[in-house]
């Protein structure tokens, strides 16, 4: 549905987006994750046809955004970082105007405007001037505007920015609902949001893609080694020695030890499942096994490790 | 075409939704009314003197009322039109709504023409206000109506040039005030460009006279429709809109 190939955008000497490639399948919700200034907005602006790329190709809904911009735009809904509202228009007038320029046939316009307002919970503000709306409502009218022509592709630049917690939950739910019928790219720097709404994540830093995967895989795969959390009854020293003897274990670290209960982080070689052996070693040694679970990195940790790693290699290049 | 009308309608609506349209039309009507009154006064005095055999040889309403009125009118437009055009692009750029327009399935040209027509519509409303003053003259005198018609044609074209140029200047900046001041200065310069006269030789004088905006209006006011002037005005408008298109496109590359 969306295909980006070797996209590069330079502003003079500054490279905002550098050789970015990714695909989004139909009905998928893709999270675009990165620190501020990573190139998320620039990539989205290229995809929506707002700015041209310096190099590379982007295809949206089967149309090249540079070659056939009007066809691509007709199939794209876009919520920019700041909702593009006309302060003097009422919400209904505004949506009506957007429907017109997005090419919604005049017969359907009225119904579409009403539907989109219900869907984004803005119906009670229909005759309020856009300039007098609260930040939360502005954001939602912005979302309504993106949905008005029922586009195949939705591109949302930080759709939950500035909303209160309840609105954030509603908006995320709405985005989840929309996925399936629509193909969605949403950018954010809030990590749990990605885990909750997106099927796949593209992590971008300093204009480069550093990782593309599902949130679950990202949390699982990122360490070179697997880490197990083990808690057992028994003396810390004996337990550590027993764990160390297990085949494939590379490191044992005692994290806690009190009242005869000790906790360990056990690293093992990547791709090797040592859970059974660990359990056997602990139980066979006469210790009481209380807990054994794989440790996953939180998205925050992954994000930080990916983006800082990139920073290191970047520095090495210079 | 639908897109153009949608944008023109939006523009016109936003003039009337904000105080701009009312302030501009109101003050225009006030100043023009004042000029009208003073010129009418002068005309009445002259015709009284003519009655005593001391005034000018011929009393002609067209010559003595229409001409000065329309030239005075253009002076007000010089000041008022920058106020109309200064926000057209600047405001959209500042508030981010440009992003909506440029990511919608409309072409740059449709946006530009839509904005142009929106501003033209407001300008025509102002012209319509002045129609009242002229109609009063018809009630009490018997001027010729055809020169009035050509004068209005000329005025529409004349305003079109200023608006096209104003759109272009507005598309260069995010700042309305900068756009307004720059537009006013460029208008003024085009106004006085032929004042320098023959200082640079007869050829330059002819060129400057041709560029000058008001000179082309004269024939229209006299009731003459000369294609030379129509071509001048239309090409000026086209050029202004073309520059706007280039500017919007360049902005896109700059980001």
Task: Walk me through this protein's architecture.
The complex is a heterodimer of chains A (318) and B (255). Chain A has helices at 40-47, 69-74, 91-101, 106-119, 135-147, 165-178, 191-197, 215-221, 236-245, 275-284, 299-317, and strands spanning 2-11, 14-24, 29-33, 55-60, 63-64, 76-79, 153-157, 183-188, 200-205, 208-213, 226-233, 249-258, 261-268, 288-294. Chain A has 318 residues and is an alpha/beta fold. Chain A folds into two domains: 2-220, P-loop containing nucleotide triphosphate hydrolases (Rossmann fold, 3-Layer(aba) Sandwich), CATH 3.40.50.300; 223-294, Alpha-Beta Plaits (2-Layer Sandwich), CATH 3.30.70.1560. The radius of gyration of chain A is 25 Å and the shape is elongated. Mean pLDDT of chain A is 85; it is low at 310-318. By secondary structure, chain B is an all-alpha fold. Chain B has one domain. In chain B, 82% of the residues lie in helices and 0% in strands. Chain B has helices at 2-17, 20-51, 61-95, 97-102, 108-140, 146-170, 176-192, 202-211, 217-222, 227-254. In chain B, helix 1 (2-17) crosses helix 5 (108-140). Chain B is globular. In chain B, 35% of the residues are buried. The mean pLDDT of chain B is 88. Chains A and B meet through helix 2 and helix 3 of A and helix 1, helix 4 and helix 10 of B.
% residues in beta strands of chain B: under 5%
Report the radius of gyration of chain B as a whole number of Å. Answer: 20 Å
CATH architecture of the largest domain in chain A: 3-Layer(aba) Sandwich
CATH topology name of the largest domain in chain A, in short, is Rossmann fold
Number of helices of chain A: 11
CATH C-level class of the largest domain in chain A: Alpha Beta
Largest sheet properties of chain B? none
Structure classification of chain B: mainly alpha
Biggest β-sheet: strands ordered side by side in the sheet of chain A:
6-7-8-3-9-10
Q: Identify the quaternary structure here.
A: heterodimer
Number of strands of chain A: 14
Strand content of chain A: 25-35%
